[in-house]
Amino acid sequence: MTYPANDKFIMKYTYDFARDGGAVSTISLTADINALEENIVVEEIQLQVKTGLASAGTPTVTLGNTGDPDGYFADIWALAQTDNAVINSGSVAGALIYDDTNDHRIHYRIDSTANNQDLVMDIGTAALTAGKIEVLMTCSAVVQAVS
């Protein structure tokens, strides 16, 4: 799909324990609305916790792409245990979309590398036993220069 240049649009992905499981692993999330592709610029990410994450242990839960599995959110476990919680870019470290040193958002351009065009949730240390999170990504398309 080609997105209109300079228009803003939303990408929506969902993690649902009932469908995706919660084993210690990397889970590729499937787009519900739109999908990441080359020349998309990710401007903001918001996680909406529908059902709080649960575990018998203390897992690490990151969100990113295959090339940088914690690039969007380094670890959401502490914030994602509560139903109806909202986690915004910058609430948790994520080097692809937030500059921790200077405390400001940065935009991340999806390039032609396939492992940058996906969204993964990495579960480490302990398995999840419940939870549902919607991932909303505010994006725009890069205008291609004509020569």
Q: Which stretches are low in confidence, meaning pLDDT under 50 for 5 or more residues running?
A: none
Please give the radius of gyration in angstroms.
15 Å
Number of strands: 12
Order of helices and strands: EHEEEEEEEEEEE
**Helix content range:** under 10%
* Domain unit count: 1
Overall shape: it is: globular
Distance between the amino and carboxyl termini: 23 Å
- Tell me the β content: over 45%
Supply the helix-strand structural class: mainly beta
Largest sheet: 6 strands, antiparallel
Regarding quaternary structure, what we see is single chain
Mean pLDDT comes to 91
**Number of discrete helical segments:** 1
Written overview of the protein:
This protein is mostly beta strands. It has one domain (8-15, 34-118, 127-141). The protein contains 1 helix and 12 strands, in the order E-H-E-E-E-E-E-E-E-E-E-E-E. The protein has one helix spanning 17-20, and strands at residues 8-16, 25-28, 31-33, 40-55, 60-65, 68-73, 86-88, 98-99, 104-105, 108-109, 120-124, 128-141. Strands 1, 3, 4, 7, 10 and 12 form a 6-stranded antiparallel beta sheet that branches. The chain has a 4-stranded antiparallel beta sheet with strand order 2-11-5-6, with no helix packed on it. The protein has a two-stranded antiparallel ribbon with strand order 8-9. A hairpin with a 2-residue loop joins strand 5 (60-65) and strand 6 (68-73). The radius of gyration is 15 Å and the shape is globular. 28% of the residues are buried.
